[in-house]
Amino acid sequence: MTKLTGCVVGAVFLAVGVVAQDNTWCGKHYMSTDPVVSPGGNFPIASTSPSPLLAIRCGAAVKPYLPEDVESSDDATFVSILVDTPITNRNITGATPVTLPSSSDAVLSVTVSVDGKTLASGDVPLNASKHSLPFNLSSLEPRVEAYTITCDATLPDGQKFNGTNLLTFLPTPPADIGSVTKMDMRTGGLLARPANGSEGPYERVMPIGFYTQYGDYLSQDLSIPATLKEQGSRTHRQDQIHPVPPFDNETVLNQVLDAMQEAGLYIMYDMRGTYMNDTSVTSQVNLLKQRPNLLLWYTADEPDGTSDALTATPHAKNLINSLDGGDGKGGAGYHPVSLVLNCENYFFTEYSEGADILLQDTYTVGNNLSFSSVWGTVCTDDYGDCGCDNCHLGFEDIIVRMDEFADRIFFNGWELDKVVWAVPQAFGNESYWTRYPTGKEVNVQSVIGINHGGVGVVPWDDTKVIPSDIKNSFSDLALSLPSIIPFILEPGVEHSQFTTALTVNSSSSSTSKVDIGAWKAGSKTLVLLTNMGYESGSVTFDELGLGDGEGVMEQVFKSGASVGEDGKSIVFEEVGSGGFVFTTSDTV
Ligand SMILES: *[C@@H]1O[C@H](CO)[C@@H](O)[C@H](O)[C@H]1NC(C)=O
Ligand SMILES: *[C@@H]1O[C@H](CO)[C@@H](O)[C@H](O)[C@H]1NC(C)=O
Ligand SMILES: *[C@@H]1O[C@H](CO)[C@@H](O)[C@H](O)[C@H]1NC(C)=O
Ligand SMILES: *[C@@H]1O[C@H](CO)[C@@H](O)[C@H](O)[C@H]1NC(C)=O
Ligand SMILES: *[C@@H]1O[C@H](CO)[C@@H](O)[C@H](O)[C@H]1NC(C)=O
Ligand SMILES: *[C@@H]1O[C@H](CO)[C@@H](O)[C@H](O)[C@H]1NC(C)=O
Ligand SMILES: *[C@@H]1O[C@H](CO)[C@@H](O)[C@H](O)[C@H]1NC(C)=O
Ligand SMILES: *[C@@H]1O[C@H](CO)[C@@H](O)[C@H](O)[C@H]1NC(C)=O
Ligand SMILES: *[C@@H]1O[C@H](CO)[C@@H](O)[C@H](O)[C@H]1NC(C)=O
Ligand SMILES: *[C@@H]1O[C@H](CO)[C@@H](O)[C@H](O)[C@H]1NC(C)=O
After folding, report:
1. What share of the chain is helix, strand, coil (3-state, %, to 5)?
2. Residue 17: its pLDDT value, please?
3. Domain count, the chain
4. Any signal peptide, and if so, which residues (predicted)?
5. Which one, 59, 312, 396, 499, has the greatest CB density within 10 A?
6. Is residue 234 scored above 90 in pLDDT?
């Protein structure tokens, strides 16, 4: 985001003084004096095959494994290889023609091997997702270099398929590594020990916390982290802070990060502005990797917007990884690497190659999506900048973006390696965005992100002047973490998502839609709902597929939604959201 603002300021200056040269955003010209040029960089549209195709994808359930994971635990699928066997007509990466067996219960016999030796094996259904094949870590030696795993699959009639990936089993961290963050690819969630540096066990972490301005805010008051965490009470407002550079004075930076550690807050460490400078990245990584509360790295901020070199993000990821215990060649290090993409469809594969965790920032509040208030031009798919690339719908553009990113990750065969997080808009009254969102609007964006697979929510941005309404509403979401993590980050929980129309009281028909995410764990189901429209209304439990006789056990998140007086519906304010745990029968 800051680059966008800087770009606007710089370009305004250019407009009055100097001849503008090739100013683009997402590859598009946006100044009225510049011609329309096709930006290029579109993600390929998959060719389709008239007959079915099968792709075999496999990957480690957890990245990285450590010697501490050799001990057997209660968690039977923790040390396992996940296998995906999509059957599709789209020619996705690795797909090959398959003659489907006539028997509906035919399965693939899968063998996972390393250097020709079998690591795991078992039967995997066709069209399975994240099917787990447990293995014994003690058959491998810990080492920096990732192992190449090969997955060979055979159908009863002898048809053969294969896939390959990397598995990382790192040594116990050396003294200069202060923490470890594992990605649990069964859920996409993170696993980390307590941020305060105590010797506690790994916990499931779903990062919820703002990008936070540093120079005129965080660095000015060392009590801010404690306030954000409110340690000592049950209040849990956010679990991580993402400070926004530059961090000019190392002494002060260390004081701020210490204060975060004391408050039990994780760091999402941002190297925007320096991520293409190897010298700078090296010294920053070497300083930060010693911290017990380092959760993850963040390199590029909207590299697609500014058309950074296409090799820049993978280069930075490999460099960071090699300094952080990894092999610098695609294996995992002690912490994952993240970045945010701003464009809807501009060199997606190239830029996201550089991330384990990919964020999207689709900002639609207070900006005109079709006419640029800043540049006085229309915005189309090959021209203009309206502050939201290729956006046409408002909040529903976030749905499109989350789903597209997930689908492209799947297309590329990366679904066992990468996850997507959401960046809600929590700023305004600047450039394209004429106003701040309300707190409830920030929560709409957050819930959409989570419902569509987002396992982290990092709004832009917390500042000295952010409206307290936004902070309070977002805290309501963060406070629900202890109630929602046991569903969203629980391996094996069934996640589904759908949208339905809001029922309104007035005679005029409703245009509002409600986005719904459900996570079913045994007899309990977590449901997150958000009314994306500016009308009040309701949806019945029946419309949620929860039947009539079932009951809400508990409301775990409240932002303008509650159980109706009839006890059989959820009633929404405009842009209201809520989270509820239902008891469900096994037949649902
Ligand atoms: C799928 O795409 C690959 C690579 O572009 C191509 O080699 C292959 O023939 C395609 N397969 C089918 C079934 O279309
Ligand atoms: C495979 O699974 C996907 C996703 O669950 C589903 O949409 C699709 O219909 C299934 N295809 C077949 C051939 O069963
Ligand atoms: C893994 O293998 C080791 C050595 O062969 C053995 O001692 C251990 O019991 C095995 N663990 C499991 C969970 O099978
Ligand atoms: C994987 O399958 C392809 C054809 O689909 C084949 O050419 C290749 O040899 C196989 N690789 C291994 C290691 O079996
Ligand atoms: C550190 O954090 C853990 C997990 O949140 C907590 O159980 C523990 O009490 C904290 N320790 C201190 C010293 O605050
Ligand atoms: C960094 O900040 C510390 C503490 O405020 C101060 O003593 C020191 O002079 C500053 N260093 C630089 C290079 O400005
Ligand atoms: C790269 O970073 C180093 C260390 O911070 C700095 O000295 C150098 O000037 C930077 N190089 C460029 C080209 O900005
Ligand atoms: C966007 O701007 C155009 C041109 O000024 C205007 O016609 C349109 O009504 C605006 N749309 C919204 C939603 O404000
Ligand atoms: C909006 O921005 C203007 C100019 O920066 C500032 O003067 C004003 O106080 C801001 N209003 C709000 C509500 O933040
Ligand atoms: C709709 O009308 C009913 C009956 O008048 C009322 O109880 C309910 O609160 C209203 N719902 C909304 C969302 O306004």
Report:
1. 20, 30, 50
2. 30
3. 3
4. 1-20
5. 59
6. no
Ligand 7 centroid distance, CA of 7 (Å):
21
Q: Are 168 and 326 in contact (CB under 8 A)?
A: yes
Please check whether residues 505 and 471 belong to one and the same domain. Answer: no
Q: What is the pLDDT of residue 227?
A: 87
Which of these three, 439, 469, 486, is where a domain ends? 486
Residues 212 and 321 in one domain: yes
Q: Is 87 in the pocket of ligand 2 (CB under 6 A)?
A: yes
For ligand 5, whether the C-beta of 264 sits within 6 Å is: yes
Regarding whether 232 and 111 lie in a shared domain, the answer is: no
In this prediction, residues 465-473 reach a mean pLDDT of 95
Establish whether residue 91 lines the binding site of ligand 1, counting it when its CB lies within 6 angstroms of any ligand atom: yes
Q: Are 474 and 446 contacting, i.e. CB atoms less than 8 angstroms apart?
A: yes
DSSP E strand boundaries for 330-403: 337-341, 357-360
Ligand 1: atom nearest CA of 48 is 14
Q: Which of 280, 281, 285 maximizes ligand 7 atoms within 8 Å of its Cβ, making it the mutation to test the pocket? A: 280
339 and 313 in contact (C-beta within 8 Å)?
yes
Sheet holding 80-84, edge to edge: 57-60, 80-84, 131-134
Instruction: Determine the pLDDT at residue 285.
Output: 98
**pLDDT value, residue 505:** 79
Q: In the 8-state DSSP scheme, what is residue 145?
A: S
Report the C-alpha gap between 290 and 220 in whole angstroms: 24
Q: Are residues 473 and 509 in the same domain?
A: no
Mean pLDDT of 39-55: 96
22: CB partners within 8 A, 6+ apart: none
Side-chain half-sphere CA neighbours of 319 within 13 A: 22
Ligand 1 mean position, distance from CA 573 (Å): 50
The CB of 537 under 6 Å from ligand 10? The reply is yes
Q: Give mean pLDDT, residues 243-250.
A: 97
Lowest mean pLDDT among 237-241, 245-249, 388-392: 237-241
pLDDT tens readout for residues 2-31: 334 333 333 333 333 333 347 999 999 999
Do 511 and 430 share a structural domain? Answer: no
CA 93 to ligand 4 center in whole angstroms: 14
Q: Where does the pLDDT of residue 238 fall: very low under 50, low under 70, confident under 90, or very high at 90 and above? A: confident
Joined together, the tokens standing for residue 432 give 């394209």
The whole-angstrom separation of Cα 243 and Cα 378 is 34
Q: Which domain holds residue 287?
A: 4-40+208-486
pTM of the model: 0.95
Statement: residue 581 has pLDDT above 50: yes
Q: The tokens of 155 are what?
A: 């159908």
In one letter, which amino acid is 480? S
Cβ 127 under 6 angstroms from ligand 2: yes
Specify whether the CB–CB gap between 154 and 108 falls below 8 A: yes
